[in-house]
Design a protein that fits this description.
This protein is an alpha/beta fold. Helix content is 31%, strand content 25%. Strands 1, 2, 3, 4, 5, 6 and 7 form a seven-stranded mixed beta sheet that branches.
C-alpha cells in the first residue's frame, strides 16, 4: 500500500524567486496570485511584514481546500525606515546610495495556514553593503535589476557585488526565509515534506 501523496503547498505569491526557492527545497507547491493589496503601514517593520504575509495567505484560502497556504512578505529596513520597491531608476539610485557602506536588515513575514491553524512568524537577516561609488551605483541602476525588488537590489544577481557581508539566512534576502519555513514544516508536518 503506497503512502498518500504529499499535499502541495499553495504559495500566495507572484514572485519567481519564491517559486525557485521552493523548488530548490524540493517542496511540492502550486502558486496563485494573491488577491490582496500590499500597503505598508505602521512604524514596526516586523508587524508590517507579518500583516502583509498574513493578508496574502488569507486572500487565497478559498481556493486552497485542505492544502497548507504560504504567504510571505519581505522588506529592507535601515535605521527603522522601510525601503520597499523603487518607483523608478532615480528612486532605486537614492535607495542604494542610502544603503551604501551601511548594514541593513532584510525582514520577512511568513504565514503558514491550514483550515485548522495559522502560524505567523518572521525572520531577520543583516546585510552589509560596501561603500559604493557613483559609477557603481549608475552601473547597477542601468542594469534594471532593481525593478520589483525591495530595497532596489537582487542579491542573487548583480546585486551580489554590492554586498560585503551577510549574517543570517541568505535565502531570506532572496525572498523566502527558508530556514524558518523548513522548521515550521518539520514541526507541523513531521516527515510529510521530508523534514522533521
Amino acid at each position: 500500500m503506497s503512502a498518500p501523496p504529499t499535499p502541495p503547498l499553495l504559495l500566495a505569491s507572484r514572485s519567481p524567486q519564491r517559486r525557485a526557492i521552493l523548488e530548490l527545497l524540493g517542496l511540492p507547491f502550486e502558486a496563485v496570485v494573491p488577491r490582496y493589496e500590499e500597503v505598508l503601514s505602521g512604524a514596526d517593520p516586523v508587524a508590517a511584514v507579518e500583516r502583509l504575509a498574513q493578508g496574502k495567505a488569507r486572500s487565497v484560502v478559498g481556493v486552497a481546500g485542505e492544502r497548507p497556504v504560504l504567504g510571505v512578505d519581505t522588506e529592507v529596513v535601515l535605521e527603522g525606515r522601510v525601503y520597499g520597491k523603487p518607483a523608478d531608476a532615480a528612486d532605486a539610485e537614492t535607495m542604494l546610495d542610502q544603503l551604501s557602506g551601511k548594514t541593513h536588515e532584510v525582514v520577512s513575514g511568513l504565514c503558514l495556514l491550514t483550515p485548522g491553524w495559522e502560524e505567523l512568524k518572521h525572520a531577520v537577516t543583516r546585510v552589509s553593503f560596501r561603500a559604493l561609488t557613483p559609477r557603481e551605483l549608475g552601473f547597477y541602476v542601468a542594469s534594471e535589476e532593481w525593478r520589483e525588488r525591495a530595497g532596489g537590489y537582487a542579491i542573487q544577481g548583480l546585486g551580489a557585488a554590492l554586498v560585503e557581508r551577510i549574517e543570517g539566512d541568505y535565502l531570506n534576502v532572496v525572498g523566502l526565509p527558508a530556514a524558518l519555513l523548513v522548521g515550521l514544516l518539520a514541526e507541523r508536518f513531521p516527515g510529510t515534506y521530508g523534514y522533521g
